[in-house]
Amino acid sequence: SSFGSSxxxxxxxxxxxxxxxxxxxxxxxxxxxxxxxxxxxxxxKSLLLCRSKPCFGTTNVQELxxxxxxxxxxxxxxxxxxDACLLARSGSEDPxxxxxxxxxxxxxxxxxxxxxxxxxxxxxxxxxVCFSVEDCLELLNALMPDVHARKRSKYxxxxxxxxxxxxxxxxxxxxxxxDVAMNFVSASMIRTLGSSTDKITxxxxxxxxxxxxxxxxxDTLAMHGEGWTFYLNLVHRANAQMRSLHHxxxxxFGLSGGFNAYLTPPRAQGLRxxxxxxxxxxxxxxxxxxxxxxxxxxHEKICDVVLTPGDVLYLPAGVPHLALSSxxxxxxxxxxxxxxxxxxxxxxxxxxxxFSGCPLAEHLTKADIxxxxxxxxxxxxxxxxxxxxxxxxxxxFSIAVLRAFDSTDLPTGADRAVAADxxxxxxxxxxxxxxxxxxxxxxxxxxxxxxxxxxxHEQVSALMRAIFSSREYRWVSHYAxxxxxxxRTDTAEVDLLPPSMCLKRRPDTSALVSSNGKLYLNxxxxxxxxxxxxxxxxxxxxxxxxxxxxxxxxxxxxxxEEVAQAVVKILLEFEGLEQVPETEL
Length: 585
Description:
Blueprint: H1 2-5, H2 16-19, H3 32-48, E1 54-56, E2 75-76, H4 95-103, H5 107-113, E3 120-122, H6 133-141, H7 145-164, E4 186-193, E5 196-200, H8 203-211, H9 218-224, E6 229-233, H10 240-253, E7 259-264, E8 279-286, E9 288-294, E10 301-307, E11 312-315, E12 321-326, E13 331-338, H11 345-355, H12 366-380, H13 397-403, H14 414-435, H15 439-453, H16 456-482, E14 502-505, E15 511-513, E16 519-521, E17 524-526, H17 534-541, E18 552-553, H18 561-573, E19 577-579
Antiparallel strand pairs: 1-2, 1-3, 3-11, 4-5, 4-6, 6-7, 7-13, 8-11, 8-13, 9-10, 9-12, 14-18, 14-19, 15-16, 16-17
Helix pairs in contact: 7-16, 11-12, 11-16, 13-14, 14-15
């Protein structure tokens, strides 16, 4: 068809709404003594084994409701791959192999058995990301408060626009944020001395402090840093490797997050004892840092964990902790955040209640999301961070749903398993809601009563609509904040793709079909799809159906050849597919 031969420019796909704008923006027991002893044994064993194995722990050794009891603190469960050099590669990363190296075991096993439940420590799991003490100080020293303030203002303007018009607009051209490009969003200085914590967020004051001390390396920071920790928010923008890693982890989880950097002089403490509302992977870049982990609720210390370069510490949301740089050198770590909250049982239940028995518009609006979020926070408050209400429902099935191309791309029984788990959670919450005496809680309890009484097929139907509408909204929000994947510029256009061409879904692809049939791919919404493209798209992009991530020949794609030609050209251009050798089949 003429459509297939006309695929030549990214600007040709969608975003007419953006182009028409006046600005032309293109864009959460065993006894404590046993826990401590086991942790000590773990650390000693790790040293004897040359720091090659990860250890796993629990922040709360209470059995999760309806789930298997967690592992004992400090149990060794695997090894980090000896060739874990993925972070040093350029180009496309395999997020699955990458994540295996981060956690020292199968990523899927981690996500279904550990994620959100236990802290983990992987010794020497990965080489350092290309971001050093000197790189961090260079970014800080280049801070121009007035220019940064203008860019942040413009950035907020663009982000607010996309948030308000997200039913019609998704990040488009890579030029959308070119006038507001920043290596990080904000900087802070934090220092804890005894029981007192000081914090400076004013960029002019930070620039003045830096200008007077000329901090350029670990030694100068140690001599003149005055115990201040420098914090850079969303610093993955600083170089191409971190941007690629950030996108790969987003493609793996289907959950948004960001990279923050913490640079601390020797023997200094930034933040006091605290909990984060999101999960964090700590990637130690330089120097040593001692992390003290505490029991949730009682704040009794569980253990101290000393990180050295290449170590990875995973902390689920709700783990009380503090960190102190140790040794004679300055410490730098990257905190990779992952936000589970939207898709925990509380988050999915809140959205499910919106969709059950009352058809909504085709897309979720900002008002819908605000209402769902308020309800999510209330349901979350009914349990602690380790209770089922604050865990992903029916893992690993929920992980499969978060990776699926659309609601037809699911492992057999995944939708029913997630629905059954959520119904059980809802039943456990109804009495709590009624007993609170709050009118709004009683209303939610009544809606839950109706929900759990629905026929199974109606429950599943409303649940899938809720999950995929929420995913669509979060997909849009993610790219409105973080920008789309940077595409290669060296792709050559081919007039006719041969039947013998061997293709495969790229492992770092983030793809989703919207409720109105648009293709969301790596941060781009592609509207001008040929008629009848959905079967070909589902085959090529399916995670659990169609090609299911395996290699295939062009001739295997269902539907008319001219449609397959157009679809594959789009998927190649926007890096949803890659050509692979026939030997992979």
